[in-house]
Design brief:
With 283 residues, the protein is α+β, with helices and mostly antiparallel strands. Helix content is 32%, strand content 27%. The protein contains 7 helices and 14 strands. Strands 3-4-5-6-7-8-9 form a 7-stranded mixed sheet, sandwiched between helices. It has a 5-stranded mixed sheet with strand order 11-10-12-14-13, with helices on both faces. It has a two-stranded antiparallel ribbon with strand order 1-2. Helix 4 links the parallel strand 10 and strand 11. The longest helix is centred in the first third of the chain and has 23 residues. It is globular.
């Protein structure tokens, strides 16, 4: 097993470099700032997605090589690829929250996770506009790095379930999700883009719960792998509604069903309430 501390140092450097490159597109200072927006399965893709993907992949491959590592990036993944056979697999989202990037909300992120045997062991989530980089190694806690150095982070101490705040999407909404949210014991909501921004809001104690509900499509491995470890190493939980763990690099990159991330000691109760609401929903 390679030294995860050494790999994390490399990954943090790559994360900061990728954040700088992405910001140059966001603020129109890149060499060729035209975003050239295309649509892939109704989701926008820009030249920034592609450029940052190439940056991350080239730097990780140069530092880590291909012998011990596999690579899955949103912008290079082909649906027929299936499971990567390497023991350690990088799962990368070069731009999580492309719509927010295009709409200039500032709520976009970069996700880089290292997965071993279907579970994340190392993660970096960079929030370029906040100039923050969150990182974690399994068993080592979660930290946030800024220009002033790194500090450890923990999710909020126990709050009454009715006082919890949900982070919700601006764009990915449907009737099933709306019904589910209305039937939870907590009704405070905060709209935030990007899964990375939602989960780091929980880690920063600005929110408590995030729910993902697949429909015709589902979030992908690269949406969840890095944010999951950032949350769980800060003391939170991130599971399917039935309590089972998320798994990655299984041959299906879709994260189907209901997923719930929380800071709460009432995580299991929230999962049960969410599952119950789904069985009662008549669409």
């Amino acid at each position: 097993m390679p030294n995860l501390e050494e790999i994390l140092k490399i990954t943090r450097e790559v994360g900061w470099g990728a954040a700088k490159l992405l910001r140059s597109y966001y603020h129109g200072t890149a060499q060729y700032p035209n975003l050239d927006i295309q649509y892939k399965q109704n989701e926008p893709v820009t030249v920034a997605d592609v450029a940052v993907s190439e940056y991350i992949l080239s730097h990780l491959q140069k530092a880590c090589g291909d012998e011990d590592f596999g690579y899955i990036s949103e912008e290079t993944f082909k649906s027929q690829q299936g499971k990567n056979s390497a023991e350690l697999v990088w799962i990368i989202d070069p731009l999580d929250g492309t719509r927010d990037f295009i709409d200039k909300t500032g709520e976009y992120a970069i996700h880089i996770a290292l997965v071993q045997d279907t579970r994340p062991v190392l993660a970096v989530v960079a929030i370029p506009e906040a100039e923050k980089l969150y990182y974690a190694i399994k068993g080592g806690g979660t930290f946030v790095e800024t220009a002033n150095g790194s500090v450890p982070l923990k999710v909020a101490a126990d709050r009454p379930i009715e006082d919890l705040t949900l982070v919700v999407s601006r764009s990915h909404r449907n009737e099933r999700l709306e019904y589910l949210l209305k039937n939870l014991p907590c009704q405070n909501q905060k709209a935030i883009g990007s899964v990375g921004c939602k989960v780091t809001a929980i880690v920063e104690q600005q929110a408590d719960i995030y729910i993902s509900l697949s429909g015709k499509s589902a979030p992908k491995d690269w949406d969840m792998a890095a944010p999951e470890l950032i949350l769980t190493e800060a003391g939170g939980k991130f599971t399917h509604f039935d309590g089972s763990p998320l798994t990655y690099n299984t041959g299906d990159i879709n994260q189907w069903g209901g997923l719930l991330a929380s800071s709460s000691q009432d995580h299991e109760i929230l999962c049960q309430k969410a599952e119950q609401a789904l069985t009662e929903f008549v669409g």
